[in-house]
Amino acid sequence: MTATDIGADPGTRPGAAPLLELRDVTRHYRTGRRFPIDSRATVHAVDGVDLTVAPGESLGVVGESGCGKSTLARVIVGLDRPTAGQVLFEGRDVSTLRGDERREWRRNVQLIFQDPYSSLDPRMSVAELIGEPFAVHDDVVPRAKRRARVQELLELVGLDPDHVDRYPHEFSGGQRQRIGIARGIALNPKLLVCDEPVSALDVSVRAQVVNLLLDLQDELGLTYVFIAHDLQIVRHLSDRVLTMYLGRVVEEGDVDTVYEAPSHPYTKALLSAAPELRAAGMRRERILLVGDPPSPIDPPSGCRFRPRCRRAAEACSTEPELLPVGGTARMSRCHFREETG
Ligand code: ADP
Ligand code: MG
Q1: SS3 letters for 295-319?
Q2: Which ligand ends up closest to the CA of 43?
């Protein structure tokens, strides 16, 4: 359906490079007073993250608020630059892309925002909102066909194509998020990064929007990075899941393996706090997460989770690496990752 097709791309061969790869990606922010330069004023929003996403795969990302999920999303789609490390798309470091190649990458990775109320300009009609990406990438759909294409997109996301001239306030929250999704898929991207796409919606409409995302993945062959607070939604949507804590990946693996037998004490605590998942899993008592996550401005030394971890021991004053857990398809950043229970 894309009007532009840059022809055979060796990067998209099956079995070729992952669609997305992050190598040791860090994003620090300097905050507050800039003078004197104070190392404590550096926010470690994302710290040394490695990840890969294969074409057609869905990677779920979970973790408490402030752990760096949105920063990671912005870095992946190029709205923010890493302080260090590399983002590779189809095997190529995106910071080296120029001209048409850069435009092609930007077209292929799109972000769906959390809040459909603040992410849609209230002064723009649906035709303008969904059509805006066509103006930015104006070789994708010829001007004369844009309105028809917007109507097609409306239909694809389950909205009435006749509502093309309406404004955001005329839609419900769920419908607005559908508009946001239509805008996200307008340019036929390969990768959709969804940053808590249903968190701001009524519980009653969340499942519908999640199901829309699942249908679109089948229809359009999309690859997802799916960030969510709701662990149940992540299980439903993801092939693999990654747990973040204070800017670090602390566990990563096949979604069923991780949900049935989490290795990292933080993942265990998150899962034990979700009653519906606890009931489905094994006899797992509720593990209370004491206190708020510490500030990413001054992360604890050693294991970042140790101040809140009930398994913390002397070894934890040295930060563990993210290492495979014996014989399973997952990794955990815990000295006691081989312990069960
Ligand atoms: P999450 O999406 O998991 O809630 P964020 O990525 O939004 O986490 O934020 C991670 C940390 O980085 C937070 O402590 C947040 O305050 C900080 N942060 C995010 N964006 C900026 C910014 N532009 N400037 C300074 N600090 C930021
Ligand atoms: Mg966020």
Answers
A1: CCCCCCCCCCCHHHCCCCCHHHHCC
A2: 1
Measured CA to CA, the distance from residue 219 to residue 233 in angstroms comes to 20
DSSP 8-state secondary structure symbol assigned to residue 287 = P
- Closest residue by CA, ligand 1 atom 13: 66
Q: Name residue, tokens 């061969």.
A: 13
Query: Is the pTM higher than 0.85?
Result: yes
CB 76 less than 6 A from any atom of ligand 1: no
Long-range CB pairs of 36-44 (<8 Å, 24+ gap) are: 40/297, 40/298, 41/297, 42/297, 43/296, 43/297, 44/246, 44/247, 44/296, 44/297, 44/299
Residue 45 near ligand 1, beta carbon < 6 Å: yes
- What are the pLDDT digits (tens) for 202-218? 998 999 999 999 999 99
- Residue 324: what pLDDT? 94
Cα angle value 73/328/58 (rounded, 5°)? 30
Ligand 1 in reach of 296 Cβ (< 6 A): yes
Distance from Cα 68 to the centre of ligand 2, integer Å: 7
Candidates 51, 130, 132; CA nearest to 86 is 51
* CA 195 to centroid of ligand 2, rounded, Å: 7
